[in-house]
Amino acid sequence: MVIFLATPGALLPLGALPAPIERVLWFLPTGPFTEMLRVGWLAQTDGGRTLGFWDSHLLALPSAGVLLVWLVIGAWLTRRFFRWEPRHV
């Protein structure tokens, strides 16, 4: 969990880490989530440009894609490693 919280924008401000490390950490689940939350809440880019309805959705697409990949990985790991036994009530 600490690694996920080290994602830029979660506990650390954007730009606090070197750019290559920040870019790698962005691919953890909280990176895209934080970016989508920031774009949805502020409706602005990092440069301060105001976004319209469709612009904000287009800017959120890469983040949604990364989150979808994490969802698929999590579902696969769950089916692979968590074996549920039937309950006998």
Count of extended strands: 0
The helicity comes to 55-70%
- Note the total helix count: 4
Distance between the termini: 35 Å
Structural class label: mainly alpha
Radius of gyration: 17 Å
SSE order? HHHH
Can you describe this structure?
This protein has 4 helices and no strands. The protein is mainly α and 89 residues long. The longest helix is centred in the last third of the chain and has 29 residues, at 53-81. It is elongated, with a radius of gyration of 17 Å.
Features:
mainly alpha, 4 helices, elongated
In short:
The protein is an all-alpha fold and 89 residues long. The chain has helices spanning 2-5, 19-25, 30-42, 53-81.
Write the layout of secondary structure elements.
Layout: H1 2-5, H2 19-25, H3 30-42, H4 53-81
Helix pairs in contact: 3-4
